[in-house]
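help with this:

***
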Amino acid sequence: MKAIILAGGAGTRLWPMSRSTHPKQFTDLIGEESLICDTYRRLLRWLPQEKIYFSISPGFEEHLHTHLPEVPPERIFIEPEKRDTGPAMGYVAALLELSDPDEPIVFVPSDHYIKDEEMFLYCLQTGERLILETGKLLDISIEPQFPSTVLGYTHVGEVFEEKENIRVYTFLGHTEKPSYEIAKQYLAQGDYLWHANYYMWTPRKFMEAFDTCAPKMGEVFRQIQECLREKTQEGCAHAIVLYGELPKISFDYAVTEEMDPQNVLVIRGDFGWSDIGAWDTLYHCLSQDGYQNVVKGDCLVLDSTGSLVYGVPEKKVTVLGVQDLIIVDTKDALLVCRKDQAQRVKEIVQLLAQSGHQHLL
């Protein structure tokens, strides 16, 4: 099996630490190493390094080389331009189909927190086995903890298989980022799981899914394949032009919501998962002190509770008498917001862009 680490996102809800030129996957938000290094080391416990690839946006090459200098260029897929996970995953599948169409692959996000790595890797191994046994797309989903409006939901049916504490379900459908009321309904029903974005299949099957579920995109990928088969400068240039014609759309919207349920199985992942997408999510992943604070950097926190405080080495950050705040200080920008407003940080980034502060993005 090959693993492709998806590392092309911008992580705008984790501003000001995550920037368009230095996004969250290349920052040490949790431990001593960056999120992308954590993801790579985790996969190395299962796969040899020659089986681990990366998909990155243009401009991220230097970051990847800085954090993981041992990764050679031939294991890096660089999107011709940033167009979300639908085009990015299709581009990788199209290229891999040319060389090894039937070896299973798994797309692995670079910015997830995994508490139980052994169980996580066993879920991936289970997915590989079931691809070979059934020919179906395998997905990992997580039991929801609260009604989220920023995650997708997987509707599961009957149990297909249960072995060694891993339960596999049939697939009934997918809903991406529902409203709060619908998310509450899903939580109450008990047959909806959080979609974790670990897609496992073969390159050939991924390409067939585009042909069926998003035929216009599938046609572009087939044209890109023909261009790259030529192995000429003109062919590569035309492939880049074709890629720019693809819509900016996630794989979830483009393919998953249109999938035939008969072609999908869902693994319930019980391995302490969290998508590090915003500051409030990060807060719940990290160890808290006796006052439920998370503090990182040169910070002095007094008479404060339930807050996340991040500072930089060059500056002393002092906090007094606050509750449930997010405080993130960097060299050129400071964020202060209520913890329950952390999902709205993306709006701040949009306002900065509209007001001409591109240097802060």
